[in-house]
Design goal:
Length: 434
């Protein structure tokens, strides 16, 4: 094959013949757009359109695309070494990033395990919990979680995703059976009713001796329904797990680094988990990187008994380029005053999405921090809606009945207004056509 650039048509042809996309089929093609370059909040398509980004490439690109400082951090590191094995070696980017993570995460999480993606960070967390009990001389492998959760696509992660909307039916013979409490009903800013945690507390009590850990997404259940639940639920879970000495795993892969208005969603309930999973935003949408943090107690227990080491070690662990970008991204978060950036996003989303409430077919509009959700009565047909968003100059990717946005933190008031206007116009157009 020549080294000449490929035309847009050639890219699409090769793609349709050979490349899998997330949750996609080779038989029925969803619309696909060739993106040529991106800058700030703008995505430039090979077909000539420029779109305002409302997705931050699935919660990751918080400072926008093609950021000069992040480019410089990546380039400087690649000029030294793009990658080096982490067995027997360490390096400045990993040390710098670990120090930032320990400093900023809820108190007491002092040990950092780097891995490659969110799902793997969850696998690592679950293995930590199982090895923790093994070190204490007990065999405990079951996880307790809540319905409508989402924790990734690998096997153990899948096993703690919602049993109905997740992939349990398809893979039921292959995944570990776990315990599922009812989804919390009390809304983030609604009235708190203690009964909301009854199902969770009952399962915890009944299966106390089998449970290796509790895992949940704090405050925001993302892919499972964009549901914002009450901080007292999280407080109750923390108190109950702590009282029984059962590790609590907080999956902040989507919520970490300010998205909900607090640096970590656990802060809404003022709790510290025993194990914390981070990913997505961690490396600012540049390179794939995740981290699992744990308490000294968890780490020391694991290392105090046979085999004396934690049994996990990926090839790309602590990738120096990804760590260098992630460390710089955290410094930028602080320099850019992320809290006021997210507050501005929240205000702009509230204002911009409010008119959607008046449209028949819209069930609910909700906003938390830098997350805006328009929940529809009926599922949205991607084949029709995605090209319509593009025609209106915006990039959104709904799933099911949910149209949601989590724009980059650098988005201006005007960017958000245009994003919301594009959504509103698409809503009117598509519902009229339906
Ligand atoms: N946990 C949560 C809460 C997530 O939102 C996701 C990704 N959507 C994951 C885990 C899995 O992360 P990844 O896609 O990087 O494997």
């Amino acid at each position: 094959m020549s080294t000449q650039p490929l035309s847009m048509q050639e890219i699409l042809r090769i793609d349709q013949q050979h490349i899998w996309h997330p949750y996609a089929s080779f038989q029925s093609h969803n619309p696909l757009f060739v993106v040529d370059r991106a800058e700030g909040v703008h995505l430039h398509l090979a077909s000539g359109e420029t779109l305002i980004d409302g997705m931050s490439s699935w919660w990751s690109t918080l400072h926008g695309y093609n950021h000069p400082e992040l480019n410089a951090a990546a380039q400087a590191q690649m000029g030294k070494m793009a990658h080096v094995m982490f067995g027997g070696f360490t390096h400045e980017p990993a040390a710098r990033l670990a120090a930032h993570l320990v400093r900023l995460s809820p108190d007491g999480l002092n040990k950092v395990f780097f891995s490659d993606s969110g799902s793997v960070a969850v696998e690592v967390a679950l293995k930590m919990a199982i090895q923790y009990w093994h070190a204490k001389g007990q065999t405990r492998t079951r996880m307790l979680t809540i319905k409508r959760g989402y924790h990734g696509d690998t096997f153990a992660a899948m096993s703690v995703c919602d049993p109905v909307t997740g992939m349990h039916t398809l893979f039921s013979e292959a995944i570990m059976p776990q315990l599922f409490a009812e989804q919390p009903r009390c809304r983030f800013d609604g009235h708190w009713d203690e009964k909301d945690a009854d199902s969770f507390l009952q399962l915890l009590e009944t299966h106390e001796q089998d449970i290796a850990a509790v895992i949940l997404e704090p405050i925001v259940q993302g892919t499972g329904g964009m549901h914002f639940y009450h901080p007292n639920y999280l407080k109750t879970v923390r108190e109950a797990t702590e009282a029984r000495g059962i590790p609590l795993i907080a999956d902040e892969i989507a919520t970490g680094f300010g998205r909900t208005g607090r640096l970590f969603a656990c802060e809404h309930a003022d709790i510290t988990p025993d194990i914390l999973c981070l990913g997505k935003t961690l490396s600012a949408g540049y390179l794939t990187l995740a981290a699992t943090l744990c308490s000294d107690t968890v780490a020391e227990t694991i290392c105090s008994a046979e085999p004396g080491v934690f049994m996990h070690g990926p090839t790309f662990m602590g990738n120096p380029t990804a760590c260098a970008v992630a460390a710089r991204s955290i410094e930028l978060l602080e320099e850019h005053h992320w809290a006021s950036q997210v507050q501005n996003l929240e205000r702009a989303l509230q204002r911009g999405l409010a008119p959607c409430r008046d449209i028949a077919g819209v069930r609910e509009v909700r906003v938390l921090g830098g997350i805006g959700v328009v929940e529809m009565d009926e599922p949205v047909d991607l084949k029709l809606w995605q090209p319509a968003f593009v025609r209106h100059g915006i990039w959104l990717r709904p799933f099911g009945r949910l149209i949601y946005m989590m724009p980059p933190y650098i988005s201006t008031e005007d960017d958000i207004a245009r994003l919301c206007e594009g959504l509103l116009n698409t809503l009117k157009e598509q519902l009229r056509a339906a």
